[in-house]
Amino acid sequence: MDINRERLIGMLKTMYKIRLFEERAKKLYKAGMMAGNFLGALHSYIGQEAIAVGACSCLKKDDYVVSTHRGHGHAIAKGGDIKRILAELQGKETGYSRGRGGSMHLFDLKIGLLGGNGIVGAGLPIAIGAAFSSQYKKTSQVTVCFFGDGAATQGTFHESLNIASLWKLPVVFICENNLYAVTTPASETIATPNVGERASAYGIPGKVIDGNDVLLVSATVEEAVKRTRTGKGPTLIECRTYRWDPHCFVITETRPKEEIEEWKAKDPIPRFERKLVEEKIINQEEIERMKSEVIKEMDAAEKFAQESPLPSVETFKEEVCAK
Amino acid sequence: MDINRERLIGMLKTMYKIRLFEERAKKLYKAGMMAGNFLGALHSYIGQEAIAVGACSCLKKDDYVVSTHRGHGHAIAKGGDIKRILAELQGKETGYSRGRGGSMHLFDLKIGLLGGNGIVGAGLPIAIGAAFSSQYKKTSQVTVCFFGDGAATQGTFHESLNIASLWKLPVVFICENNLYAVTTPASETIATPNVGERASAYGIPGKVIDGNDVLLVSATVEEAVKRTRTGKGPTLIECRTYRWDPHCFVITETRPKEEIEEWKAKDPIPRFERKLVEEKIINQEEIERMKSEVIKEMDAAEKFAQESPLPSVETFKEEVCAK
Amino acid sequence: MREIRYVDALNKAIREEMIRDGNIFLIGEDIGPLGGTFGVYKDLFREFGEKRVRQTPISESAIIGTAVGAAMTGLRPIAEIMYIDFITTAMDQVINQAAKLSFMSGGNVQMPLVIRTQQGPGTREAAQHSQNLEAWFVHTPGLKVVMPSSPYDAKGLLKSSIRDNSPVIFIEHRLLYFKKGSVPEGEWLVPLGEAEVKKEGNDITVVATSLMVHQALEAAEILSKEISVEVIDPRTLVPLDIEKVIASVKKTGRILILHEAPVRGGIGAEFVRQVTEKAFDYLDSPPRVLGGLNTPIPFSPPLENACVPQVEDIVGMVKEIVKEK
Amino acid sequence: MREIRYVDALNKAIREEMIRDGNIFLIGEDIGPLGGTFGVYKDLFREFGEKRVRQTPISESAIIGTAVGAAMTGLRPIAEIMYIDFITTAMDQVINQAAKLSFMSGGNVQMPLVIRTQQGPGTREAAQHSQNLEAWFVHTPGLKVVMPSSPYDAKGLLKSSIRDNSPVIFIEHRLLYFKKGSVPEGEWLVPLGEAEVKKEGNDITVVATSLMVHQALEAAEILSKEISVEVIDPRTLVPLDIEKVIASVKKTGRILILHEAPVRGGIGAEFVRQVTEKAFDYLDSPPRVLGGLNTPIPFSPPLENACVPQVEDIVGMVKEIVKEK
Ligand SMILES: Cc1ncc(C[n+]2csc(CCOP(=O)(O)OP(=O)(O)O)c2C)c(N)n1
Ligand SMILES: Cc1ncc(C[n+]2csc(CCOP(=O)(O)OP(=O)(O)O)c2C)c(N)n1
Ligand SMILES: [Mg+2]
Ligand SMILES: [Mg+2]
Q: D150: which strand partners?
């Protein structure tokens, strides 16, 4: 492994952070403690952690990330503050979007987080715009654009990849193919076996990789980031993965049980952990310490969110009327 | 040539029909005798005749054609009545769309003509729908969908080709790549050298052919039509061609003179004609007779259109109010 | 009469029509085995198979476009847009194609097409999942606009919409799906363009559609001791039965229009325009609109609630209007 | 003062602003060497190069999306949609993204973005090239809506729009491009949200924007011997200077709103709503709207002309209103 130890350990910790955050969020949601739990706009990232973490481990703080409806993992991996994420999920004034956005709309310009999106496929053209900005201003910032297999069949996919290629924009497209869009299998929605191979239709490199292998994700994204930082244009990377939970918590699970179990056995966290232990980069004790740190952080975030005030209706109305 | 004589002669005649129709339309337009000549929504098909004619020569009367803003050629090739086309261009009640649609919107369900479109790229999903209909009703009808290089970068291209492939719809996509969208060169808008090769991104056959060779067009489309009539799904065919006139008659010509001349030398009509003469399918005398027949038809059409009444404003208002 | 849920009334309407006419098919996202995100298509995939229940990729332009092409060539599509917010990705096909092609072809083609969708705030899903967009479609010549408030209307109006030869946008409300109401057995329709007086009254006319009908009725109930409120549900915004509204205003002299969409440029304004034009001399006080605040819908529950009319707001506004003059 | 054409006034505004602020760039179709379909960008490609004048494929969603992403990250895009009809292919980016993201991010991102487009019938291009869609955008919280009627306003308002930190939809009119008007030299702005009385009068208030201002002034001129017409141009529909309109109605007691878009659900209705709410007691006759017929725009010239208000229609309607009561 040619990544330094600190970064590797950081990656493992971030994977735990995402996993435990999502578990906590689910628990709170099921206990009726989330703002959004009437119809459940809560999309769990569990199972896909290797992608956000692998990809964001290649980015600098001022690089941009364009996220999706399933965006908690991206926000955490890009360095988002879980206190403010959880507060946002509860509709609190201290949340990233002051309770205006909710789970699907986490923004933090300071860490380059350009928001999730409630519209499938809408992030791709926005990512083009962010990448255009960096190219225009001659900064060396890169934009990573996450999207799902479902988004790959929206017209915006086509328009955006075409323009990104034509203008050699500094953007990396990462398709998280978790095999389903809500309940519809990717095999029913994508006419080719892979999304990654569509890259050839835009004259850009395309990869199809195991998205549960965080090291492979990070190595692949690293290469794409290097390429695009030096002006050579975009890459499309399809990461095959699986979400463990249903699409969101009000949608009935329709996927075969065996399939779910099969994929749970491919859990990206123990897989990476085993590797790190084998290579003596971390030991069991350190792992336990790491986990308890993350849990503490989670407790603190829960407390913070819980104690944070809801936005003031009066102030809000004044704001609206001022417009 | 394995096409029968009658069909070959018919093809030549239709090419002349289109050419002379467009010349006549342009003349009338420039004389201020078209309804639409304030801003000139008149898009000439001159130079591209081999495509409409080659493609439609493979179709039956009840097969469908989805056309574009540059649609006179498609309408004529599908068997449209030039009297009613010209009347439509002059906004007359006897026009195909009773003067409601104009040049860009020629419809005749009786010959499967499903209209032009003023929105670039909008025809592709509509073509999918027509093809879906035939598949649903188990007729053996095929839909041919024409569109330009400009339309190939709209999101609808992607959505439609993907679905057509997934559902094995009986549709043939024909991209008339005339190298420009208004004044923008295709090289600035399409990230790959060809549109045709994008077919692989949808798992369907793709061809890139000389669109000024009517026999090649017809042979290529014939194969695609056969394929799709027997349930094997869509084909994408890119026909390289050139329009002789500016985008429409109010847009300044920006293309290099030499380029225009070069392409005029590749005129599809004499090229085909030479071949037919060589192969003794037609002789010069027959050609002259054919041309004068077409001119007569054109004169009759002009007279018909000229003498036709404009739609009644009163009747129209009553129709509107009834809704 | 038996009571069934709004969502089941819709399901029954579709099923009955699909049995009646083999040219009807369904197209949309997650409408197969799941039966649609809200269950409107429950069991239909099992009954009719993938030929007639066509689940698609996430490609809204192609969904509507396919429906347009199919309608032009003799089928009768029912296309679902999961949330009305997502119709923004297909507006060209709705506005420039579905709504216009029959006209632009001089009647050469017909467009018997239903676009089913649902809208509304109230479920903490934020601004991209909570819009009320009926005003856009009311302003689009060539479309019919239907907004049922009860299971009875949902069933009767959907059947009429399916049988109509013009494109219809059929807008349901997420918060109504699980409300019950009585729906008779047998074959009957609710015609498009016929308003219904949901409650009679003499002091003020309240016009409401969809979810707001229920809020209006609740407010009327609360006010019943002091103010006699007439509640009218136009049921279809296009065609609009303005006569029934005018008749009511001539009786009450006052009118309040309710909707969840922002007041600015909403359909309330259109009612005000028609009522002032046609019944100016009968008005005892200015027509008023109570609608949404002029803001994207926020996620946080107290803010979201503040954005759309609540029963107590309606009560307050009715009192205010009746007190005037 | 020198007289220049509307199209040239726009060109000057953009050029001046681009010189002032290096973060401004142009994006759209055929805006390079051609200078845009109507010449608004004449010579700008030569002057600023392809970095700042970015010609695109026909991909409207990506055009607006690119502008949104660029605006969020510090640039100030001016995105062109060639005809407003084509914005239907990019509505998600306009409505759900540009208009909402600043709000949805709790102010974390800003959206200094101008969408320039043009609209209107009258050029025999049929229903997919002739719509007036301002009402949709007025009904969309988060957008500003600007509709200049003169070269002076075009220049001053475009400069204000470019400097604004909210998304602005700037709607020009094809039939105004070649009209001349006086435009002073030097640096000045027309602020957003300030209506202008284009002609004073006492008998009736006529509200009009864009092309309709000219028709209104012509009608006022024809009527001048018998009726004194006040013509007000709001210039920006959002923000709206309703106070100036109300003040005028309080003086005249009568109001007619003109627009080319269909009357049903158009912005005229919104004016009626606000005027009846705020000046009911001053009204001597019902507020009226004269707008487009409720139909897609037909191609044929006599039909097209019949669909939108002509000067003689305005004259007739003003007479009718003033005669009432
Ligand atoms: C334009 C649009 N259409 C439909 C939806 C409803 N929807 C939300 S998420 C989703 C599935 C997305 O699938 P994918 O892109 O694979 O992401 P995943 O949920 O699997 O992470 C759908 C259909 C939407 N939000 N936007
Ligand atoms: C959605 C949309 N965007 C822009 C336009 C304006 N427009 C009309 S034709 C055209 C060029 C089309 O180019 P292409 O598809 O190559 O067809 P061609 O004109 O070359 O036949 C453009 C940009 C339009 N009509 N619709
Ligand atoms: Mg997925
Ligand atoms: Mg072209």
A: none
**C264 interfaces chain A, CB cutoff of 8 Å:** no
Q: Assess contact for D131 and D85: CB atoms under 8 A.
A: yes
Contact C239, C269 (CB under 8 A): no
Query: Do A98 and A316 touch, CB atoms closer than 8 A?
Result: no
Q: Is the CB of B100 less than 8 angstroms away from the CB of C103?
A: yes
How close is the nearest chain D Cα to the Cα of A45, in Å?
21
Ligand 2 nearest atom to the CA of residue B122, by list position = 1
List subunits contacting chain B, requiring 3 or more Cβ pairs under 8 Å: A, C, D
The CA-to-CA distance between both ends of chain A, in Å, stands at 55
CB atoms near residue D16 (< 10 Å): 15
C223 in the Ramachandran plot: left (φ > 0), alpha (ψ -120 to 50) or beta? alpha
**Rounded alpha-carbon distances, angstroms, from residue B185 to A164, B146, D34:** 17, 19, 12
Q: How far is the CA of B97 from the centre of ligand 2 (A)?
A: 22
The CA distance from C254 to B271, in Å, is 77
Q: Which of A67, A159, A182, A198 to mutate to test the interface with C (most CBs of C within 10 A)?
A: A182
Domains in chain C, CATH or no CATH each: 3-182 (3.40.50.970), 196-323 (3.40.50.920)
Q: Which ligand is in closest contact with the Cα of A156?
A: 1
Map out the domains of chain A with their CATH numbers: 5-320 (3.40.50.970)
* Tokens 């008007």 found at: D181
pTM of the model: 0.98
Q: Which two tokens stand for residue B46?
A: 């001159």
* Contact: A36, C129; criterion CB under 8 Å: no
**Residues of C assigned a catalytic role:** 129
Closest residue of D to B42, CA-based?
D125
Interface touch D106/A99, C-beta < 8 Å: yes
Exposure of D140 in the CB half-sphere (CA atoms within 13 A): 28
Tell me the C-alpha distance between C201 and D236, whole Å.
41
ipTM of predicted assembly, 2 dp = 0.98
Those chains having 3 or more beta-carbon pairs within 8 angstroms of chain A are B, C, D
Tokens 């926020």: give the residue: C298
Q: Which atom of ligand 1 is nearest to the CA of C129?
A: 25
Beta bridge partners of B236: B173, B206
Q: Which amino acid is located at C160 in the chain?
A: S
CB atoms under 10 Å from CB of A288, counted, come to 10
Q: Which residue of B has its CA nearest to A195?
A: B201
For C193-239, the DSSP string reads T--EEEE--SSEEEE--THHHHHHHHHHHHHTTT--EEEEE-SEEES
> Are D232 and D244 in contact, with CB atoms under 8 Å apart?
yes
Give the distance from residue C19's alpha carbon to the nearest chain D alpha carbon, in angstroms: 34
CA D217, CA D214: separation in Å to the nearest integer?
5
Give the A window 178-217 contacts with B, CB below 8 Å.
188-192, 197-198, 200-204
Alpha helix (H) ranges present in D224-323?
Answer: 242-252, 267-279, 301-307, 311-323
Q: What distance in angstroms lies between residue B180's CA and the mean position of ligand 4's atoms?
A: 4
Q: Which of C123, C128, C302 sits opposite A310 (nearest CB)?
A: C302
* A244 close to D (CB below 8 A): no
Q: pLDDT tens per residue, chain A (323 residues)?
A: 567 999 999 999 999 999 999 999 999 998 887 766 555 679 999 999 999 999 999 999 999 999 999 999 999 999 999 999 999 999 999 999 999 999 999 999 999 999 999 999 999 999 999 999 999 999 999 999 999 999 999 999 999 999 999 999 999 999 999 999 999 999 999 999 999 989 999 999 999 999 999 999 999 999 999 999 999 999 999 999 999 999 998 888 999 999 999 999 999 999 999 999 999 999 999 999 999 999 999 999 999 999 999 999 999 999 898 76
Residue from the list D71, D74, D92 with its beta carbon closest to the beta carbon of A122? D92
